[in-house]
Amino acid sequence: MGNSLSQTPEPFLLFTGGFTQLRQADPFLSVGGIEHDTSKFGKGISIFGLTKEGAFVQKGAPVWAGENPSFLCLDPRGRFLYTTNETTEFEGKKDSGGVRSFRIQPSSSGEVALELLSAQPSLGSHPCMIATDKRGARLFVANYSGGSISLVPIKDDGRLAESRQLAQYQGASVDPARQLASHAHSVAFAPNDEAVFVCDLGTDKVMQYSYDTVTGTWTPNNMNYMPLQQGLGPRHLVFHPTLPFAYVVCELAAVICVYRYNSDTKCLVYHSSCEMLPSGWPSEGERSKVSAFNNGKWAADIVCAPSGRFLYATNRIHNSIAIFSIDPTDGRLFCLGHQPSGGITPRQFSLTPKGELMVVTNQHSHNMVSFHVDRATGILTPTGHQIEVPLISCVRIVNWKDLERSAQ
């Protein structure tokens, strides 16, 4: 393709996923759920260009990817896109969702196509998160309602081989609405792929494993899991890009726990924690409005800036992005403030590779919003650009130039 792709007007490409079925991933349905326009629902994976100013340019119609392609994952080299199908039945197999792989096909005209390569069952209900190792050789799947982790080998051409279950978790914790059983919510790899960590929202544990990058096998560490304070609900975990620290966003308590990572034992050691919501919120006037919604505590995603200086996490109900600075000596967090997300239910978000722009998915207002990121202060400023994407739940960002290199 030569240098053709670098001539496209937008420097970034976005892939978005979401829910094709109504009233999904809403734990508050017993009290009516999050109010939103129920005439809109997702139609698959959408593709957009993103300009330096944060404007969105749609690239064709959505690509059908099965029911509820709610979470997306990019191949480390940008060749393939993987998605969950967050369901309880997949191609006739009950008690299982699914995963699919697509080849990314950019063209010199600036358009992008997705070619469906393969699909496999996730071997557990409601697969809510997927991640590849750094070699792009294996796809790990967290099955939320199934309380399990599955592994799907990835062939050289991006096709998925037969799934196998790695772990089935048991247990519960103290929240009678959300913690009656195990709910595996995410998988995260240590910086050199030497260890794997699983956040189990239902049991208040972070499972810890050693990982063999050659064989793909994992074994429990000497300390099989890191217990959290009961009722926190660990959801997602990210590592600092250069320091030996990991950060866990806890959905039920709207708290971020900080851990020191020991690369010798491949275990996490608790360090500190930081509240995600503003002090004094909800106010007396707001308290009655959010009391049925876990008192306004419904944390979602977490991302560390490429510089390692700042950390961001989303608050649903409060509909904000919490902004933190990171102490370079001990990894401790300090809250700098909160930026309104520009919509309702900011479920997931991504930064551009160098961290100059942030894109946030607001599930229940059906919109995607961009922000300028001040890389010196960490502060976010709305670009003024947004676009409608019904029941959006995930966005992934890649450089056009990276696509060009992967296509050669």
From TrEMBL:
Gene Ontology molecular functions: 6-phosphogluconolactonase activity
Superkingdom of the organism of origin: Eukaryota
Pfam families with a match to the protein in the record: Lactonase
SUPFAM superfamilies: Nitrous oxide reductase, N-terminal domain
Family to which this protein belongs: Belongs to the cycloisomerase 2 family.
Protein name: 6-phosphogluconolactonase
Natural source organism: Cymbomonas tetramitiformis
